[in-house]
Amino acid sequence: xxxxxxxxxxxxxxxxxxxxxxxxxxxxxxxxxxxxxxxxxxxxxxxxxxxxxxxxxxxxxxxxxxxxxxxxxxxxxxxxxxxxxxxxxxxxxxxxxxxxxxxxxxxxxxxxxxxxxxxxxxxxxxxxxxxxxxxxxxxxxxxxxxxxxxxxxxxxxxxxxxxxxxxxxxxxxxxxxxxxxxxxxxxxxxxxxxxxxxxxxxxxxxxxxxxxxxxxxxxxxxxxxxxxxxxxxxxxxxxxxxxxxxxxxxxxxxxxxxxxxxxxxxxxxxxxxxxxxxxxxxxxxxxxxxxxxxxxxxxxxxxxxxxxxxxxxxxxxxxxxxxxxxxxxxxxxxxxxxxxxxxxxxxxxxxxxxxxxxxxxxxxxxxxxxxxxxxxxxxxxxxxxxxxxxxxxxxxxxxxxxxxxxxxxxxxxxxxxxxxxxxxxxxxxxxxxxxxxxxxxxxxxxxxxxxxxxxxxxxxxxxxxxxxxxxxxxxxxxxxxxxxxxxxxxxxxxxxxxxxxxxxxxxxxxxxxxxxxxxxxxxxxxxxxxxxxxxxxxxx
Length: 540
What we know:
Blueprint: E1 24-27, E2 33-34, E3 40-46, E4 52-59, E5 68-71, E6 77-82, E7 89-97, E8 105-112, E9 131-134, E10 140-141, E11 147-153, E12 159-166, E13 175-178, E14 184-189, E15 196-204, E16 212-219, E17 253-257, H1 270-279, E18 284-289, H2 295-307, E19 310-315, H3 320-329, E20 336-339, H4 350-371, E21 376-382, H5 403-411, E22 418-422, H6 432-448, E23 452-457, H7 477-491, E24 496-501, E25 520-522, E26 525-526, H8 528-537
Parallel strand pairs: 2-8, 10-16, 17-18, 17-24, 18-19, 19-20, 20-21, 21-22, 22-23, 23-24
Antiparallel strand pairs: 1-3, 3-6, 4-5, 4-7, 7-8, 9-11, 11-14, 12-13, 12-15, 15-16, 25-26
């Protein structure tokens, strides 16, 4: 789940995909001067969701800052940077992809000047005030104006967080920005919030005397006319009782992955999605969740119960406190939390990434112990080509694949209960290469005495440009999926609990080949491989 952008498969040697992986640094601005009071600042910008970035700065003498690692989100990236240890003069700030064959990068030049201490004119002693200019208090947003600009004035250099919440406590995903000399401007989408009073909040981040400003507006979209999509026409009526035992419930079951926050996955469509999955007997749905945003699971949990869908959330690694609050909120309904996605993609920085995963694990365990909820956790790894020894190789000569990563995590205190696995096969992988990768899957099951959640699979032909899912007999995408399903059912059902295809809809927000992984073009238009998944989900 690309989870935001998650289907990169390091085991595929010569076809590592990096096309369209553009990075842009938006803040700081080129040629900006940093004085002694502004040596710690935010670097943010745009990138391809799911890419791992490293951000740092270097001075004219070649001295560099410590690297900051982050994963590009759907809204871009944002990391703090401190150049106090660098010398005055030209500073080069760089954001670089990590662990890919043809990494993309972006850099800008700024200046550091601490020799002359500029005293602000006495007349400008303004406190860190924030004003919202747009939207005006009391404004009404109708169904044609649910994505709108929030702008205003602030103190240049301040880091701001902007979001909106409704009367039920659901909130939009926070947008982070740095105040410019002219103020700030961001877009907010309130389509997932309920009608009525909406509070728009602008708040400083991580300051001792944080300032904030709110305005209250109204969302009014009028009566909702629900027209069931044609593909869901045969869905059961309102109250849905899932089958007492689905054909695959006693062994390996089949599911599908999705997202939240992308154009292809509006929360308002959740019920239609779950109704569709229920009508096809697809009972597992993997999504990515951010512990700072309750809106996604607040919407999905009751609907999942209604339609007999088991949610498999992947939580982005976060602080112990946030993970604790999040897991506690949903402890009655979500018992298994997957922590992080494809964090084994490079050895560089692995310990740092694991440390955040450990914090997340501790928060979930704290909630579980406090409530007696028996919550469990899952670590995610990818199949790895141990024969590959070139640039970016992560398991050269190690037939066990990414077990170096799971052992590092366990030794660091992440005592996971389950292992999830990703592998995208070509039709021609059957034989040596497929056996190599699937033997790793079996190895994790044996090593940790657990069944595997094989929760990302699709054809690798998508990386070669397939956008349609193929057709029966193509010896390409369609036949590749059918081939792996048959092999899993006949040879690996003893060690696999669930097989989850990635992903439900084409997700063109992320661009490039990975925008076409969908099993449906949209909710009304399935591809042939969606019907293939349905067929296997209903086979005994």
